[in-house]
Write a structure and sequence with these properties.
Length: 517
């Protein structure tokens, strides 16, 4: 469907006796219907006060050639914006795009206009390319940025890039081509669906226009770049899974990072690397976008002719000026906040991974300790087996088995003594042992405070006594008489059993006294 006149958003009240004039209708802003709109032409005056839409085209390629031919002439002092939303049949290069390209060649001969209906996905906001937009731009160098959402073949929500290019034509004409990716319409999406919707509000940046073509171009570029910031407001990112939507949207990691969501699940090194790489990419995109916006804003503030500033002050009322200045301030602060959100996310990811790495090191230290204990046990066993040079079957060992265990205990005792000496030398070197010796009661004082302390002391005495009985038994059995060693071992274990019973009685008595208090 082709509409050759703009539609007025505010209908006249019943008290009005006369309908608005055609000129009033021509300058009234148009609210587009993004559900079916694929193209509209917007004429904006260089002072930013008058904007009209002489053409709106819905998803139908029939009649597009005639509609473009019937467009009013592009007058001097007017910026003509072609706001394109290729989708459906209008993605046909041999139909819709060919007609638009033909119109550009006939209407603007000499310009090298090659509109791309399929913009590249990566951001292209190089400062040189941006400055080319208000420097004549004879080569047609454009810029692109992420301005919309789309669902890819895997049903995941991703960003899509839009494309903008500005041409100076003739003495005082400006041609702007904006090629947008299709927006994903959900109940929580921002209201500014089309480029014209973003430049139509009262606080639009083009309200700062002052009749200069260069200044209006900068303002149009700034609105285009700001659409990437307003793409997914941080306050709405958690609402993408709105139950009222026509389908349940999948999680969009890019939005979660920008919003500063702190859900980090770097359970493995691979997941950590992927998460960090994603955040680094998003940070680079936001930094480039923020630098581009700051570049255009500073260009508007610093490099304006004093006469142009005075003219702008006269043409703009204070309320409109304050609204635009506030919007520009909010825009810069939004860029700053989202960039800080990503930086904080990267820092949090690094801290989380560092904490998990420390926990992993502690677990590895515990594993090494267990392996050391096992080595302490099996090394004496290996040495004792080597010393005895066992060449007999197990059932034929008899007294050799006794000797084997005895050698194991003796060599193990020597290893423990060496270990204790090494630890003692280390403690002396670090002066830690002197702190304990400075207070003789310190070692025993911490065990007298509780039942568990007493049990710890008695338990250590029991283990030391057991080891002493084993050592004495094997020494007498291996060096003098086997039977004597066996008797020492038997009587020793009986004594140790009695000691264990005595310890239990003491502990129970201590518990009884504690309960009595």
């Amino acid at each position: 469907m082709v509409i050759m006149e703009s539609q007025v958003t505010q209908m006249p009240s019943q008290e009005q006796k006369t309908a608005p004039s055609p000129e009033d209708k021509a300058i009234a802003p148009v609210r587009s219907d993004p559900a079916g709109l694929v193209m509209q032409v917007i004429d904006v005056s260089y002072d930013g006060k008058r904007s009209r839409s002489p053409l709106q085209l819905n998803d139908d390629i029939n009649g597009i050639e005639a509609a473009l031919q019937n467009l009013p002439p592009h007058k001097d002092g007017i910026a003509r914006v072609f706001d394109l939303y290729p989708r459906g049949k209008c993605r046909d290069h041999n139909g819709w795009q060919s007609n638009v390209s033909k119109h550009f060649r006939e209407e603007y001969p000499g310009l090298r206009i090659t509109p791309r209906l399929f913009p590249e996905s990566r951001i292209k906001n190089d400062l040189w390319n941006i400055s080319r937009q208000w420097a004549g731009n004879a080569e047609g160098t454009g810029i692109s940025t992420k301005t919309s959402l789309k669902v890819d073949g895997k049903d995941s929500l991703n960003t899509a890039s839009s494309f903008l290019v500005c041409y100076y034509y003739g003495i005082n004409k400006l041609l702007v081509i904006v090629i947008n990716e299709q927006h994903l319409l959900v109940g929580t999406a921002p209201p500014e669906y089309t480029y014209f919707d973003r430049i139509a509000p009262e606080n639009r940046f083009i309200a700062m226009a002052n009749g200069s073509r260069d200044r209006l171009t900068k303002l149009l570029v700034l609105d285009f770049l700001s659409s990437s910031v307003y793409l997914s407001p941080a306050t709405q990112l958690e609402l993408w899974r709105n139950p009222g939507s026509f389908f349940d949207l999948p999680t969009w990691e890019h939005s979660a990072v920008i919003a500063g969501v702190s859900s980090i699940t770097a359970n493995t090194v691979e997941v950590y690397i992927d998460s960090l790489a994603l955040r680094e990419v998003v940070l680079q995109e936001l930094q480039e976008l923020a630098e581009a916006i700051d570049f255009v804003v500073e260009s508007l503030r610093k490099y304006s002719n004093p006469k142009e500033k005075a003219f702008a002050t006269q043409q703009r009322d204070s309320s409109s000026s304050n609204a635009v200045d506030e919007r520009m301030f909010i825009l810069q602060q939004m860029c700053y906040q989202r960039r800080k959100n990503v930086e904080r996310s990267i820092e949090q990811l690094n801290r989380t991974f560092e904490a998990k790495s420390k926990a992993l090191n502690i677990q590895e230290s515990a594993s090494v300790r267990r392996l050391t204990i096992l080595a302490t046990i099996f090394l004496p066993l290996s040495l004792s087996t080597s010393i005895l040079s066992m060449q007999s079957r197990f059932k034929e060992l008899h007294l050799k088995l006794y000797d084997l265990v005895g050698v194991f205990v003796i060599i193990g005792t020597v290893a423990v003594i060496i270990l204790l000496l090494v630890r003692a030398i280390t403690d002396i070197a670090s002066s830690a042992i002197f702190r304990d010796l400075s207070n003789p009661n310190r070692i025993w004082a911490r065990h007298e405070k509780s039942i568990w302390g007493l049990l710890s002391v008695l338990g250590r005495i029991w283990f030391a006594s057991t080891w002493a009985v084993l050592m004495v038994s094997f020494l007498f059995g291996m060096l003098k008489d086997v039977m004597l060693g066996v008797k020492i071992l038997g009587f020793g274990f009986v004594g140790l059993l009695g000691y264990a019973i005595l310890v239990c009685v003491v502990i129970l008595h201590r518990i009884y006294l504690q309960l009595g208090k």
